[in-house]
Amino acid sequence: MTKKAAPKVGRHVLWFSWKLVTFFCIAFSLVALFRLHLRYDISSSAVSRTRSRIHYDGPAKIAFLFLARRELPLDFLWGSFFEIADVENFSIFIHSAPGFVFDELTTRSKFFYGRQLSNSIQVAWGESSMIAAERLLLEAALEDPANQRFVLLSDSCVPIYNFSYVYKYLMASPRSFVDSFLDRKESRYNPKMSPTIPKGKWRKGSQWITLIRRHAEVIVDDEIIFPVFKKFCKRRPALDARKGKMNMKLQKQHNCIPDEHYVQTLLAMSELEGELERRTLTYTQWNLSTTGNQNWHPLTFSYANAGPQQIKEIKVVDFSCFYIVKDGYQDEYCDI
Predict the structure, then answer these.
(1) Is-contact 289 299, C-beta < 8 A?
(2) Which has the closest alpha carbon to 231: 277, 262, 264?
């Protein structure tokens, strides 16, 4: 019996060996395919990240990026602004409500005809859709290599200097203008963002930014920080009597306001803060809105408080800011 069993054991070992070899061959093939796919993804990404290195000899443009609810109510003022500009020195992109078209029926300025994005999304204040819309604007503007500066604007912004002054001012600086600081008093950082976004890199600032091309590319190419914001940086829901005790839990959530943190935090994570002028070029007044929900928004200027004298006073405002880093935190102090 023992002598007859030996061949069976040998065949069993041989069969097991063949199965093992087959398994390793398949495994190695899958690893090779995965590495090849990964290498392709990295190469594809590298192509998109070398756009700023392409040499461009033509006139540099400023891309004016309007983040609008629907129409541009102050389009006639912007029309006058662009009227005296060289068309080779600027481009216009508008993110408006999906399906809204800028034409002779919806705008008083020919400069905005057809300038809306075709892939716009529905935007909600205090949600990640706001920064998603900003990224769409930057992505569209980056398609033109002539665009070298990118100015984000709301539908209530107006220019207080002429085009020539704005163009020379922006092109003279190799830096982006991004209001960015670490606020000791705010509590919007969600610990669940760690370790992808460490608390030490969490920044706050104005949504209204002006970027050089390289920084615009960093924002559009980001596939790491934006998903974290989308998942964990949310607006706290309103009270709902129907939810009873659940309201208490919901109200403990962070009121993140992603548009005041995303760009600043991403650039800090990318070690690019040394390339920033940490101030915005958009003038706002926040200290006059103190009642109800209005304190979430700056003052809206009207005809009564936006006359020639008021504009002259705004132009002479001198911002002088300095930063103090202590115990890993950065405080911003500004004198006006």
Answers:
(1) yes
(2) 262
Angle, to 10 degrees, between the axis of helix 129-142 and the axis of helix 225-232?
160
pLDDT for residue 33: 44
User: Which residues on neighbouring strands pair with residue 152, listed in sequence order?
Assistant: 65
Residue 292, pLDDT > 50, answer no
Residue with tokens 């662009």: 82
The amino acid at 317: V
Judged against a pLDDT cut of 80, whether residue 204 lies above it is answered with yes
What is the C-alpha to C-alpha distance for residues 191 and 176, in angstroms, rounded to an integer? 29
d(CA 50, CA 43): 11
pLDDT band at 243 (very low <50, low <70, confident <90, very high): low
Using the structure block, give the residue that is written with the tokens 């006139």. Answer: 59
Name the residue with higher pLDDT: 46 or 122. 122
Distances (CA, A) of 208 to 60, 61, 187: 21, 19, 21
For residues 310 and 307, what is the distance between their CA atoms, to the nearest angstrom?
5
pTM: 0.75
Q: What is the pLDDT of residue 235?
A: 79
For residue 259, give the H/E element and its range: none
Burial label, 244 (beta-carbon count in 10 A; 0-12, 13-18, 19+): exposed
**Confidence at residue 153, expressed as pLDDT on a 0 to 100 scale:** 97
| 42-48 contacts, C-beta under 8 A, 24 or more apart | 45/221, 48/217, 48/221
